Amino acid sequence: MAKIIQLRRHQAISVKAKSKHRVRLRVTDGAYPEETRWDVQRPIQNAGSFRALNGFDDRCARSGRWHAFEVSHRLISRFARQIEPYAARNQVEVRIDGQAVRMVKKVRA
Question: Would you state the pLDDT for residue 17?
Fold first, then answer.
């Protein structure tokens, strides 16, 4: 059974019902990567505890390296909602279980 996470500005993500999900995140903000990392720390900490922040420092943000951590199934939808504004502004790239969080082009009739 899959859990579907509805996001306002992004495609809905279908994640498998397993106890832990692998999240990969990369800071893509070229102007202020340190400030973006500072802002993104809060959703990461809320979802994966302080242990998830291990290795996610200014050098990681400036170099554009992927940071990986695990999030429980219970908290994955909250993490996706909290990280969505940063992904919408193209400040971060996020992959949940290998699926990229991508923007949806809204078509008006």
Answer: 76
pLDDT for 4 beyond 70 = no
Domain assignments of the chain as residue spans, ordered by start:
2-100
CATH number for the domain running over 2-100: 3.30.70
| Measured distance CA(107)–CA(105) in Å, rounded | 6
User: Which two structure tokens, joined as six digits, stand for 42?
Assistant: 């809060």
Long-range own/partner contacts, residues 13-19 (CB < 8 A, 24 or more apart): 13/80, 13/96, 13/99, 13/101, 14/99, 15/73, 15/76, 15/96, 15/97, 15/99, 16/97, 17/73, 18/73, 19/72, 19/73
